[in-house]
Amino acid sequence: MTKVLGIIGNPVAKSFSPTYFNEKFKRQKIDYQYKRFQLNEISEVEDVFSKEKQLVGFNVTSPFKESIIPFLDDCSDESLALNSVNTVKIVDGRRIGYNTDIIGFEATLKSLGVTKEHCMVLGSGGAASAVKYVLSNRGIQFIQISRTPRNGMIGYDTIDQELVKKYSVIINTTTLGMSHQLHLKPKLPYRHISENNLFIDLIYEPRVTAFLLEGLNRGARIKNGFEMLIQQAEASWNIWSHTS
Question: Which is the catalytic residue, given 35, 65, 132, 185?
Answer without folding.
Answer: 65
